[in-house]
Design brief:
single chain; Immunoglobulin-like; 40% strand; 5 helices; five-stranded mixed beta sheet; 3 domains; mainly beta; Methylamine Dehydrogenase, Chain H; 37 strands; disordered C terminus
């Protein structure tokens, strides 16, 4: 995995900054030897005008305390250092078990090796274990890093990493966030232990290490905080992050099922919070080999046979205002009770005005009376309550009815909590399924999360007047009735279009302040 030195958005950024004599170079995790048995973090010799100015640099491949069969997943240029993320066989277990741990290693870009010992060897090499775990009496560790990406903020650098348990029948995954300020504190510690496989000398200055230096942070680890979206039977193999003004939107791909998870992640005070926004299956024609993002626009997936493009907005999947409004790419149309892409919806409207309510929810109010509701996960969508309308679902006795919901939510029937029975089932994505419905199931069903209503359905089981047809003649009778209703609907729709053409006009002020009519 090569360091992507040209990945900066700023074209004026000098990515060779920090190297000896400011010379450009590539830092990489590689394998050498006849059978690829030697694992190295390597920088080639630095050249200037065709002459070697500084020798190449590497780790010691004959000592597995440096690197022990690593599998590199990412490398990044951060200030004066280069960071490498990988998983390797842990030597802490003393060879009794073949445990896999996730690691992060850091080298100084100005490192030119030792003067006598460790010549052409990193003297600034440090590494530590990545700790992504659920705290408990017996912590649940996500030990295997699968993917990692870097996010720059105004005051820090964050790394989002997807981690998983061992690939067994009960595999689980999660996303953890690692902040460089915590890592700097960790690597600046000078601790040693008789039980530690590594000793950290008292000085981190390059060129002053000894041949016995094993530059790791002892038994310390870099804590990734509370895991985000821990999930069973999932392996997040790819990750991308879109940085928004109030939040970071995480896109994580389950490589086994090609299911894309979208998560909002934001800081509130000193704590970080998250909400799952969306989960959808993408069709890319095979296993995904790479995933990247065009911020604010699209996700790109590369398989063996094609490159696929998907919009970041999955607005059509949201059945309610509460779910739609908190998605940073969507807005809820109050009049139509439907979810649309945020920029596209607003850009197609005439004479709209953006206002902010007392709760911080952004509302786009059209002069003609149409209204859009937009918010984000950290503020919620309180404005949706006033405009919420239950979605009516009609069913026949004996039918199966599916209500869409969201994970980590509960369902209520006429205000009472719904529990699972032989006829009432819950789906993995938070939906509700009612089997073999009857007139006793007529009620209002609410999906509620954190005390807030997300979506509301009204179930009407047509039992008395229109029972489900059982014979061919009954089906034909129903067909004739529906044909009549369809004709009536077409006539009413035509009348509505005519009325809209006559009446749907807005008063628009032009650049000179003149008021005139403009047809929408």
């Amino acid at each position: 995995m090569l360091l992507r030195r040209n990945a900066s958005r700023d074209p004026s950024a000098r990515r060779e900054w920090g190297n000896p004599s400011e010379l450009p170079s590539v830092y990489s995790g590689i394998r050498t030897g006849m059978a690829g048995e030697n694992h190295l973090i390597y920088r080639p010799a630095l050249m200037e005008k065709g002459k070697e100015v500084y020798s190449s640099m590497r780790t010691v491949y004959t000592d597995n305390r440096w690197l022990n069969e690593p599998q590199f997943v990412g490398s990044f240029d951060v200030g004066e250092h280069v960071y490498f993320f990988f998983r390797e066989i842990a030597i802490e277990s003393g060879g009794l078990e073949r445990n896999i741990y996730s690691r992060v290693a850091r080298v100084c870009k100005k490192d030119v090796g030792g003067r006598v010992v460790l010549r052409q060897v990193w003297t600034s090499f440090l590494k530590a274990r990545l700790n992504c775990s659920i705290s408990a009496q017996y912590p649940y560790y996500f030990d295997r890093i699968q993917a990692v990406t870097k996010v720059e903020t105004s005051d820090d650098t964050l790394f989002y990493a997807t981690m998983s348990t061992s690939e067994t029948a009960f595999v689980s995954s999660a996303i953890c966030t690692f902040l460089t300020d915590r890592k700097l504190e960790l690597f600046s510690e000078s601790r040693s232990s008789a039980l530690s496989p590594w000793l950290l000398p008292g000085s981190n200055q390059s060129g002053l290490a000894t041949a016995s230096s094993r530059r790791c942070a002892g038994t310390s680890s870099w804590n990734g905080g509370m895991p985000i979206v821990p999930a069973r039977d999932v392996i997040f193999t790819h990750i991308a992050v879109d940085v928004r003004s109030e939040q970071n939107v995480i896109f994580a791909l389950d490589g086994r099922s090609n299911t894309l998870w979208k998560v909002s992640h934001w800081r509130e005070g000193s704590a970080w919070k998250w909400v799952e926004l969306e989960r959808r299956t993408i069709a890319v024609g095979g296993p995904v080999k790479a995933m990247t993002i065009l911020p604010g626009e699209f996700l790109y997936f590369a398989s063996r046979s094609a490159v696929s493009q998907f919009t970041l907005a999955g607005c059509a999947l949201y059945p309610s205002c509460a779910l739609c409004a908190i998605d940073p790419y969507c807005s809820w149309h109050v009049a139509r009770s439907a979810c649309y892409p945020r920029e596209k919806a607003h850009g197609q409207s005439l004479g709209y005005d953006v206002i902010t309510s007392s709760s911080g929810v952004r509302i786009t109010q059209l002069i003609c009376g149409f209204r859009w509701i937009s918010s984000w996960a950290g503020r919620g969508s309180s404005e949706c309550t006033a405009s919420a309308k239950p979605k009516t679902k009609t069913a026949y006795p004996g039918d199966t009815v599916h209500f869409h919901g969201t994970s980590d939510a509960v369902w209520k029937r006429d205000g009472n909590l719904v529990t699972s029975t032989s006829r009432v089932l819950f789906t993995n994505d938070g939906g509700l399924v009612l089997m073999n419905v009857s007139k006793e199931d007529n009620a209002d069903y609410e999906c509620v999360a954190n005390g807030k209503q997300l979506v509301k359905y009204r179930l009407v089981v047509d039992h008395d007047e229109c029972t489900q047809p059982r014979s061919l003649q009954a089906y034909k009778s129903c067909q004739r009735e529906w044909c009549k209703k369809a004709d009536q609907y077409k006539a009413a729709l035509a009348d509505w279009h005519d009325a809209k053409k006559r009446n749907a006009q807005c008063l628009v002020n032009d650049s000179l302040g003149h008021v005139h009519n403009r047809i929408e």
